[in-house]
C-alpha cells in the first residue's frame, strides 16, 4: 500500500486559512489502512481543526466526506457535489489522490493534508516499513524477495557495504541491513550462489529517472 | 599496459616489495598549503598517498584536485572515488580527466552515507555501486571502452584498488564479496584498520583458499591510536571497526601522556606481524590528522628506504 502520515495540525491550519468553506476529503483505501486519511482521521482532524480555529477566533465552515478511492474517477465523482459547495478541498489521500482530485476539478484549490511517504507494508501492529520504490523493473527474484533498491541505504546491487554490523545498517541501528536479510534468506533458500555473480548497473530508464512514467493498456482503451 | 603508464605503486607491488601507502584528507577549503604540508610529512616514507573523496560525507576540496597538488609535489596519489555523489556519467568523465592529469591509481568506493556528514540534507546518487565502478574502470583500461561501449581515444589506464572490511558482517560473506571485487577487476585491496589480528588472519586464510590472494595485492590497513579514548570510540562508534578489548586495555594501562607513544608502538608491532603473513603485500597507514607520525612508524617498522620511483 501507499503509506502516509497526516501533516501537523499547525501546518494544515496555515494552508486552509484563506478559505471560508472547506471540504476535508478522506480516502478509504491505503491511507485509511495506515491511519492517515480514512473516515476516522477525517472526523478527528475536523474536530481538532474546528477547535483550534475557534480558539483563534476564526471561522471556517468544514464539511467532511470520505470516498472509497481518490485515485479513480468513478469514486471521485461521488465527491463532485460536495466539492462544488466548498471553496477548497483538503485531501487526506496520498499525493496521487490529491493530484487526481485537482485534475478533475480545475477551479478548486486542492490542498494536501498528508505527507505521502512510501510504498510499504504493515510489518507488525503500529509499524509500517518501506519495501519498494517502483523502479519499474523488478529484480526481487535475484535477491530472495528482499529489495536492495528500496531497503539498502546505498541501493547497492552488489552489497553489502563495509558498515553492516550485527544485521543492522550503518546509518541507523534501528534499520535492518537489507543485505544481511538478503544473504540470510538466500541461504535458507539454498540460493546463495545468486550473489556470486556480478550484477551489472541498473538501467534506470524504467524508473522515475527516465521521466514521468505512463502505462498504456491498449486492451483497456474504449 | 606500457611501462610508461605504470604507477609507482604497481611497480613496487609487482616487484614483490612490501608496499607502504598513507592517507591525505583534503582541506575544508581551497588552501593548497594544507596538502603541501601533509605531502612534506609523507614524502620519502610512502609509495603512494590515498586522497579521500569527501570522506565521511563532509564537503572538502575535491579528490582530483588534491591529487593533482600531490603530483606537482612529486608524490604519487591514489585517487579515491565514491559513487555517493556522482552518477556514471560524472564518474567516467572525472576518471578520464584525472588520468589526463597524470593520476594513475584509483580506489573505488561506495562511500559513507551522507547522513554521517556535514550536510545530511543532501540527496545521494548511488547510481552504481563500487563493484560496478571497478568493472567500468577495468573496461576502460582493458577494452578501451566507456560504459556505453563507445571506443575511447586514449582510454584511462588506471591501477585499480578497492576497500575490503574483514571485520564487517556477515563474516562468511565477506570473502564472496572480495571475490566479486577481484573478478570485477581489482588489482589491489586496502583493508579496514587491523587491530584484531586473529580475525584478520582468518579472513586472509579464507581468501587464500579461494585463490584470491594470488589475483590481487592485499594491503592491510593500520591506524596508530592516540589514546584509550580513541580506541574506545572506534570500537563503539565507527561502523565496521573491530577493536578488541585487549587493545583498549593496553592503551588504558599507560599514563595519558604516554598513550601516543604506546599507540605508535602497537602500530609498529602490528605491521611486523602483518609482514609475517604470506599474502599481505603492504600496509596502508591511515594516520588521520596525524601525518607527522607516518614517517616514524615506517622507520620503526624497518620499511625504509622506499624504492626510488622509476
Ligand atoms: S526491484 Fe524495483 S519493483 Fe521490485 S521491489 Fe525493488 S523497487 Fe520495487
Ligand atoms: S549497512 Fe547494509 S543496508 Fe546499510 S548501506 Fe550497507 S549494505 Fe546497505
Task: Provide a descriptive summary of the structure in words.
The complex is a heterodimer of chains A (222) and B (310). Chain A is of the alpha/beta class and 222 residues long. Chain A has two domains: 117 residues, Response regulator (Rossmann fold, 3-Layer(aba) Sandwich), CATH 3.40.50; 75 residues, no CATH class. Helix content of chain A is 29%, strand content 23%. The longest helix of chain A is centred in the first third of the chain and has 17 residues. The relative contact order of chain A is 0.12. The mean pLDDT of chain A is 96. Chain B has one domain: TIM Barrel. In chain B, strands 1-2-3-4-5-6-7-8 form an eight-stranded parallel barrel, surrounded by six helices. In chain B, β2, α3 and β3 form a beta-alpha-beta unit. Helix content of chain B is 40%, strand content 15%. The complex binds iron/sulfur cluster (SF4) (2 copies).
Q: Which terms summarize this structure?
A:
heterodimer; A: about 220 residues; alpha/beta; Rossmann fold; 2 domains; three-stranded antiparallel β-sheet; 9 strands; B: about 300 residues; TIM Barrel; eight-stranded parallel barrel; globular; binds iron/sulfur cluster
Amino acid at each position: 500500500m501507499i503509506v502516509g502520515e497526516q501533516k501537523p495540525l499547525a501546518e494544515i491550519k496555515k494552508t486552509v486559512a484563506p478559505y471560508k468553506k472547506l471540504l476535508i476529503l478522506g480516502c478509504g483505501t491505503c491511507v485509511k489502512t495506515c491511519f492517515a486519511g480514512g473516515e476516522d482521521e477525517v472526523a478527528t482532524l475536523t474536530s481538532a481543526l474546528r477547535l483550534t480555529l475557534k480558539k483563534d477566533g476564526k471561522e471556517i465552515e468544514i464539511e467532511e466526506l470520505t470516498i472509497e478511492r481518490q485515485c479513480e474517477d468513478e469514486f471521485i465523482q461521488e465527491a463532485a457535489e460536495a466539492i462544488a459547495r466548498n471553496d477548497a478541498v483538503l485531501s487526506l489521500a496520498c499525493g496521487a489522490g490529491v493530484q487526481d482530485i485537482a485534475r478533475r476539478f480545475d477551479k478548486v484549490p486542492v490542498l494536501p493534508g498528508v505527507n505521502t511517504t512510501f510504498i510499504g507494508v504493515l510489518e507488525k501492529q503500529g509499524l509500517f516499513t518501506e519495501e519498494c520504490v517502483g523502479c519499474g523493473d523488478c529484480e526481487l527474484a535475484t535477491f530472495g524477495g528482499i529489495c536492495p533498491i528500496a531497503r539498502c541505504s546505498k541501493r547497492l546491487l552488489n552489497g553489502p557495504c563495509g558498515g553492516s554490523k550485527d544485521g543492522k545498517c550503518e546509518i541507523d541501528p534501528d534499520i535492518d541491513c537489507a543485505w544481511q536479510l538478503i544473504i540470510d534468506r538466500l541461504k535458507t533458500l539454498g540460493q546463495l550462489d545468486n550473489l556470486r555473480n556480478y550484477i551489472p548497473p541498473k538501467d534506470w530508464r524504467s524508473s522515475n529517472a527516465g521521466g514521468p512514467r505512463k502505462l498504456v493498456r491498449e486492451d483497456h482503451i474504449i | 599496459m606500457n611501462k610508461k603508464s605504470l604507477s609507482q605503486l604497481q611497480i613496487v607491488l609487482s616487484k614483490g616489495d612490501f608496499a607502504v601507502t598513507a592517507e591525505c584528507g583534503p582541506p575544508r577549503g581551497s588552501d593548497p598549503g594544507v596538502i603541501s604540508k601533509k605531502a612534506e610529512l609523507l614524502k620519502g616514507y610512502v609509495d603512494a598517498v590515498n586522497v579521500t573523496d569527501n570522506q565521511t560525507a563532509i564537503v572538502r576540496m575535491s579528490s582530483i584536485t588534491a591529487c593533482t597538488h600531490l603530483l606537482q609535489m612529486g608524490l604519487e596519489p591514489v585517487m579515491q572515488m565514491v559513487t555517493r555523489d556522482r552518477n556514471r556519467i560524472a564518474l567516467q568523465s572525472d576518471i578520464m580527466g584525472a588520468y589526463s592529469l597524470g593520476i594513475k591509481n584509483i580506489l573505488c568506493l561506495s562511500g559513507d552515507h551522507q547522513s554521517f556528514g556535514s550536510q545530511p540534507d543532501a540527496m545521494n546518487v548511488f547510481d552504481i555501486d563500487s563493484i560496478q565502478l571497478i568493472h567500468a574502470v577495468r573496461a576502460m583500461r582493458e577494452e578501451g571502452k566507456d560504459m556505453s561501449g563507445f571506443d575511447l581515444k586514449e582510454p584511462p589506464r588506471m591501477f585499480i584498488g578497492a576497500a575490503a572490511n574483514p571485520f564487517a558482517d556477515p563474516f562468511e560473506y565477506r570473502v564472496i564479496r572480495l571475490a566479486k571485487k577481484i573478478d570485477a577487476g581489482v588489482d589491489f585491496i586496502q583493508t579496514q584498520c587491523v587491530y584484531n589480528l586473529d580475525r584478520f588472519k582468518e579472513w586472509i586464510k579464507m581468501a587464500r583458499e579461494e585463490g584470491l590472494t594470488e589475483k590481487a595485492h592485499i594491503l592491510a590497513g593500520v591506524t596508530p591510536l592516540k589514546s584509550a579514548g580513541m580506541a574506545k570510540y572506534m570500537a563503539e562508534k565507527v561502523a565496521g571497526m573491530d577493536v578488541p578489548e585487549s587493545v583498549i586495555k593496553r592503551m588504558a594501562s599507560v599514563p595519558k601522556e604516554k598513550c601516543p607513544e604506546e599507540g605508535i608502538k602497537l602500530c609498529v608491532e602490528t605491521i611486523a606481524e602483518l609482514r609475517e603473513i604470506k599474502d599481505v603485500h603492504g600496509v596502508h597507514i591511515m594516520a588521520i590528522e596525524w601525518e607527522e607520525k607516518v614517517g616514524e612508524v615506517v622507520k620503526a617498522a624497518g620499511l625504509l628506504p622506499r624504492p626510488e620511483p622509476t
